[in-house]
């Protein structure tokens, strides 16, 4: 058996779902050996997109995803996607190769370890044929337990070598039962319970870590006993939907009522939440903060030093509940009729613009049009404010944000990977026109593989964030504008379909057409290029902006 045939057996044995791939010198023999016997292979058009697809699959399933790309320039193409996956704590294994030092042609030679580690991923180089099975199993185990990307490299001249007869591989799942639930220090939990009991108006903020840990009910119980207001980070949006004291997303995307209430908090406790600068916007400077999380922040965050209670979000919340006195707090802290009234108050929309679809009303009309489980994956840019604030989803749905590393251009492949993992839902990728241009070639990948994905493009003919920032500074924004692209025509040229939306009232028909589409469907929304989002009006233009609390609420949709 050849080494590349053995690696094909490993891919089958690890059972990670689809294999996301782009062929090159490091993997063409592997993919040939897999043939039709292995997992479904999704062939991407760019290495960065291939890794981002695997990242999206891992985000959707929580399980280890698998990708393979070539070495040298293939690996460097994937740098941004590796950093984003690492910041997201996505478990994925990337199979690649390396140019042997003794090869006379060194055109693609690179110190790959330094590059991968600079991308905050883990680098595993296969030491030799004698350790091939152990090295590969260790890589898959590390990805699952450490929840980070692991790049596995094997010298190219080893791929066609022969292995001894009887070579076997034991899948990594049999090496470890799974990560233990980290139980926090008893004394730290006692201290936090006393702080919560003595706080006048505590705020509980749940992040993605709390959602993944299943801590929702325990955190709600803490709120009931302490009179706390409930909120989430953007990545956990909608976690407490239906609770009368759910303030929704806190921070930069918060509703007007939430911003006012959050400013009254005298203690902030984050469960599985970074409590970063954007999340803590509007909180009183110097307010005591406590982070309940599995580990300290893994990268320099610039955050103020709050207390860390190291532990699993659900386990820590459960222990807190045991220490807090039973009985409700319906008339204490934030649990008042005044809070209910503030959260339920409607906010009138600004006047409709006359130079394109109103992005606020576009999201509200889309909320009315959606029916059934929907997964919305939102990218990075000015446009992201509109779904974050104004889009309401049906029960059983999810909204995910590709904010890690703050990189534009990641959303299309991440959404494609997620769509493969969750075929039961309507998948909508929300992206800006400039961002979409960075991975436009993956339209062809989605169409070729018949991946059921709807792409909603906020098409304002420019780099929207820079246009509004330049405008706010009194500078000429034309440097950030360009011609409007016909994305529906592009989609059709790649084998997909789509619809152009020039008025927000047309989004319902477009969503209905997307549901009938077998694969790629692009909704090219020609939105107003002069309409700034509420956060941008406040932060970059010094203008007042009132935002409603839309998620799970009936709002004035006029």
Structure description:
With 558 residues, the chain is α/β, with parallel strands linked by helices. The protein has three domains: 3-174, Rossmann fold, CATH 3.40.50.970; 186-344, Rossmann fold (3-Layer(aba) Sandwich); 359-539, Thiamin diphosphate (ThDP)-binding fold, Pyr/PP domains (Rossmann fold, 3-Layer(aba) Sandwich), CATH 3.40.50.970. It contains 22 helices and 18 strands. The protein has a six-stranded parallel sheet, with helices on both faces. Strands 9-8-7-10-11-12 form a six-stranded parallel sheet, with helices on both faces. Helix 3 runs parallel beside helix 5 and helix 10 packs parallel to helix 12 (313-323). The protein is globular and about 75 Å long.
Keywords:
single chain; 558 residues; alpha/beta; Rossmann fold; 3 domains; globular; disordered C terminus
Please tell me how large the radius of gyration is: 25 Å
Please give the number of β-strands: 18
Number of helices: 22
What is the CATH topology classification name of the largest domain? Answer: Rossmann fold
Structural class: alpha/beta
Q: Give the biggest sheet.
A: 6 strands, parallel
Approximately what portion of the residues adopt beta-strand conformation? 15-25%
Query: In which range does the helix fraction lie?
Result: 25-40%
Low-confidence stretches: 554-558
The total number of structural domains is 3
Q: What is the top-level CATH class of the largest domain? A: Alpha Beta
């Amino acid at each position: 058996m050849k080494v590349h045939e053995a690696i094909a057996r490993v891919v089958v044995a690890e059972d990670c779902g689809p294999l996301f791939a782009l062929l090159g010198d490091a993997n063409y023999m592997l993919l040939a050996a897999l043939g039709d016997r292995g997992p479904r292979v999704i062939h991407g058009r760019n290495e960065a997109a291939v890794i981002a697809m695997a990242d999206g699959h891992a985000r959707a399933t929580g399980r280890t995803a698998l990708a393979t790309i070539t070495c040298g320039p293939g690996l460097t193409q994937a740098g941004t996607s590796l950093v984003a996956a690492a910041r997201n704590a996505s478990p994925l294994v990337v199979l690649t190769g390396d140019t042997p030092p003794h090869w006379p042609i060194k055109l693609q030679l690179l110190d790959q370890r330094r590059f991968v580690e600079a991308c905050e991923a883990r680098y595993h180089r296969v030491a030799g044929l004698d350790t091939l099975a152990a090295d590969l199993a260790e890589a898959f185990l590390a990805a699952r337990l450490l929840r980070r990307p692991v790049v596995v490299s094997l010298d190219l001249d080893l791929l066609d070598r022969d292995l001894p007869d009887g070579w076997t591989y034991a899948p990594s799942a049999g090496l470890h039962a799974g990560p233990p639930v980290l139980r926090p220090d008893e004394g730290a939990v006692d201290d936090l319970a006393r702080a919560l009991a003595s706080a006048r108006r505590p705020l509980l903020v749940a992040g993605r870590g709390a959602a993944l840990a299943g801590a929702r009910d325990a955190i709600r119980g803490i709120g009931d006993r302490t009179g706390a207001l409930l909120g989430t980070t953007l990545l956990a949006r909608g976690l407490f939907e239906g609770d009368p004291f759910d303030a929704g997303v806190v921070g930069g995307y918060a509703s007007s009522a939430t911003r006012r209430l959050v400013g009254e908090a005298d203690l902030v406790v984050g469960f599985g939440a970074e409590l970063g600068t954007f999340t803590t916007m509007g909180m009183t400077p110097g307010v005591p903060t406590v982070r309940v999380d599995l580990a300290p922040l893994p990268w320099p965050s610039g955050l103020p030093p709050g207390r860390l209670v190291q532990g699993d979000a659900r386990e820590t919340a459960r222990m807190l509940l045991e220490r807090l006195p039973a009985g409700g707090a319906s008339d204490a802290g934030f649990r008042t009729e005044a809070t209910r009234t503030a959260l339920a108050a409607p906010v009138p929309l600004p006047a409709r613009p006359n130079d394109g679809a109103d992005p606020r009303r576009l999201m509200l009309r889309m909320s009315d049009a959606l029916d059934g489980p929907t997964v919305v994956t939102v990218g990075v840019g000015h446009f992201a404010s509109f779904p974050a604030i104004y889009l309401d989803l049906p029960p059983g749905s999810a909204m995910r944000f590709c904010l890690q590393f703050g990189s534009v251009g990641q959303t299309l492949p991440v959404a494609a990977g997620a769509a493969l993992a969750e075929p039961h839902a309507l998948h909508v990728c929300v992206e800006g026109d400039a961002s979409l241009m960075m991975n436009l070639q993956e339209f062809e990948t989605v169409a070729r593989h018949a991946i059921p994905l709807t792409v909603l493009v906020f098409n304002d003919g420019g780099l929207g964030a820079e246009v509004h920032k330049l405008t706010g500074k009194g500078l000429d924004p034309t440097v950030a504008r360009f011609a409007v692209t016909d994305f529906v025509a592009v989609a059709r040229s790649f084998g997909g379909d789509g619809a152009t939306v020039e008025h927000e009232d047309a989004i319902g028909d477009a969503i209905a057409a997307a549901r009938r589409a077998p694969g790629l469907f692009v909704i090219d929304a020609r939105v107003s290029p002069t309409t700034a989002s509420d956060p941008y009006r406040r932060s970059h233009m010094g203008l007042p902006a009132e935002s409603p609390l839309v998620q799970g609420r009936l709002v004035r949709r006029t």
